[in-house]
Amino acid sequence: MRRRCVRAGCAHLPLPARAGRLTARLRRTLWRGALGVTGGIRRTGRLPEGGCVVVANHTSHADTAALLAALDARHAPRIAAAADYWFATPWRRRICRRLAAGFPVRRTGGGLGDLLAMTEALRRGHAVVLFPEGTRGPALGAFHRGAVLLAREAKVPLVPVALLGTGDLLPKHGRLHRTRLQVRIGAPLPSTVTAEEARDAVAELLG
């Protein structure tokens, strides 16, 4: 079902089903509470109306928690997760799906098909979150093309997001440290951008 946006110029934009939005609100409350204990989180910017592909830097497992705490629940965000890690065992699979709204993406063949399977979710108004670097790293790496191909297929914008502080909160192979996080949401980009242009937009937000 499509709902009319209350702001002029946003007519007939879709929203995810009510049950999905309710579950997203519960996840948002959970992760905002957890991050409040570890130093808090500050968001600037917000997602556009309707579906979008979110592209963010990836330095820590805490990135997903920061995004779920900061992004608008009305988009019922779905998070791409490495199939070979998060879906390798039943307990990881349950945690990823229930607490992080994760869906599996293969990193060794078939990954593009996994991403394109989210086209309909985007058309229903979901935000699909991808980490285009493909793995965690201390510095911003090259972006794979899957995010831009998915946006073009679904005809939705890409939204660059910069995550700051997550690598200090939970370093790769490190211990948890109290840190205040920042989530900077940039202006939407057209689906015609290249992977390099999407990376540049995230780099600019990182400052």
Explain briefly what this protein structure is.
The chain is α/β, with parallel strands linked by helices. Helices cover 39% and strands 18% of the residues.
Structure report:
There is one protein chain. The model is unreliable at 1-11 (pLDDT under 50). The strands form 2 sheets. The chain has a 7-stranded mixed β-sheet, sandwiched between helices. The longest helix has 20 residues, at 18-37. By secondary structure, the protein is of the alpha/beta class. Helix 1 (18-37) packs across helix 2. It has helices at 18-37, 62-70, 83-86, 90-100, 111-116, 119-123, 146-154, 166-169, 195-206; strands at residues 2-3, 13-14, 41-44, 52-56, 78-82, 102-105, 127-130, 158-164, 181-185. The protein has 9 helices and 9 strands.
H/E element string?
Answer: EEHEEHEHHEHHEHEHEH
In terms of DSSP E residues, the strand content is 15-25%
Total strands: the figure is 9
Let me know the average pLDDT: 91
Radius of gyration from the CA trace? 16 Å
Strand order of the largest sheet: 3-9-8-4-7-5-6
Relative helix content: 25-40%
